[in-house]
Amino acid sequence: MSRVVVVGAGAAGMMAAIAAAEQGAEVVLLEKMDQAGRKLRITGKGRCNLTNTAQIKDFITHIGPDGRWMRNCFSQMFNTQLMDFFEQRGVPLVEERGHRVYPRSGRSLDIFLALVGDIEARPNIHFRKNCAVKSLTEDCHGVRLQDGTTVRGDAVVVATGGLSYPTTGSTGIGYRLAQDAGHTVVPQVPALVSLTCQEAVPPELVGFVLKNVGLTICRTGEGGKKIFDGFGEMTFTDRGIDGPIVLSASRQASRLLNGGESLSAHIDLKPALTPETLDRRLIADLDANGTRVFHDALRLWLPAELVQLALDRLHIEYYKRLNKINSAERKRLLRFLKDIEFTLVGTGDYNTAVVTQGGVDTREINPKTMESRIVSGLFFAGEVLNLDADTGGYNLQIAFSTGYAAGRAAALLT
After folding, report:
1. How far apart are the C-alpha atoms of 63 and 394, rounded to whole Å?
2. Which residues, 6 or more positions from 257, have their beta carbon under 8 angstroms from its beta carbon?
3. Cα dist. 103→59, 89, 374 in Å?
4. d(CA 287, CA 283)
5. Measured distance CA(217)–CA(152) in Å, rounded
6. Cα–Cα distance between 248 and 192 in angstroms, integer?
7. Beta strands 340-347 and 263-268: pairing type?
8. Count of other CB atoms within 10 angstroms of residue 80
9. What does the pLDDT look like over 8-30, one tens digit per residue?
10. CB contact set of 323 (below 8 Å; sequence gap of 6+)
């Protein structure tokens, strides 16, 4: 019987332990915290969007830097297999908007309990908590703990997570373990995170949600080259912008912003209308409401929370009647409705980032087994790898799939 040491009891680590145990291996699952799966229990705002039912060709387009790398891994456990895994363990699932899959109860706790229940029911898994790993052994087939003891095995699976949500135990130690074993580690930045604006956000906008808007992110140099273009929901914070569409944009923007570049965000309040169509509507509205004053009439086109921002930026007289608005002023209004611009200067930190971008270079990992191409018997799974994806269940599927592949291959190594 082979002996597999799994470092980290998050989504990837717990799945790795189960997969190894299913192959008959003796498994030692080590967790530095006093509880497993802390990040899993808060994911998806406590609802746990565990996967997405998209077909694999579409699914991998949401993964970076190279989603195709996951094909071999997904051939072993993809969305349907993952859904079956949890439903067979008593967790009914439901598909919601955007093909996102959640537990029907709406509780991430149910996903966590299914994993822990499986682990505790297997006599060949030894689950040890409060066991912080200090280093790998010289042969990388075991680990040294902070208390000075050594846990040895035939293989080690590193599933320590990234740097996001450090209060859940994510310290980035997996990157150091990988480097000590000779691996290249791509520098990390927060991803799926809020974006910080140079301009002050008016108090009345903080917490305000915009639905069905367009968001474009451009470089401030290079002729304004576009790096993201999307549609959805966003919200304003006291430091900038957040929300689903912003999180998606941050995957492209984070590395640039954390590298010191400035980007610009462009919000389109009327994405369904071309500038020409919207201009015709503005002309009609101005004609039909000629005696109304400008500050009051702004409610024709804007929610109340955006009125003051419009007044600040448009420089149109507060009490000017609409029948006195000239062509240049109308064009400024049109531009505001189609392009509210903010200068982006940074991102939120790892305390609020959903995932970490960067990690162990996948070119040095066997994509079918998750085994190191540098050191035999050393495996990596989950967020410690240089893989990150959009919101929508993609990241957890990566964690579960890589964990499954790593655990299974580690058990079959000897």
Report:
1. 7
2. 195, 196, 263, 344, 345, 346, 347
3. 20, 12, 39
4. 6
5. 49
6. 6
7. antiparallel
8. 10
9. 999 999 999 999 999 999 999 99
10. 286, 287, 290, 291
Residue 167 has pLDDT above 90, yes or no: no
d(CA 331, CA 382): 50
Q: Which fold has domain 3-188+354-411?
A: FAD/NAD(P)-binding domain (3.50.50)
Beta carbons of 364 and 336 less than 8 angstroms apart = no
Domain ranges of the chain: 3-188+354-411, 194-348
Residue 165 CA from chain centroid, whole number: 12
Residues 353/191, Cβ–Cβ less than 8 Å? yes
CB 217 within 8 A of CB 263: yes
- Strands 155-158 and 378-380 turn out to be parallel
List of residues 6+ apart from 200 with CB closer than 8 A: none
- The answer to whether 45 and 247 have CB atoms below 8 angstroms apart is no
Give dist(CA 256, CA 264) in Å, integer: 12
As to burial, measured by CB atoms within 10 angstroms (0-12 exposed, 13-18 middle, 19+ buried), residue 284 is exposed
Q: How many residues comprise the chain?
A: 414
- Token pair for residue 95? 């598909």
Question: Residues 256-288: pLDDT tens digits?
Answer: 999 999 899 999 999 999 999 999 999 999 999
Helix (H) or strand (E) holding 253: helix 244-258
Residue in 109, 367, 324, 356 with CA at minimum distance from that of residue 250: 356
Distance CA(378)–CA(372), nearest Å, equals 6
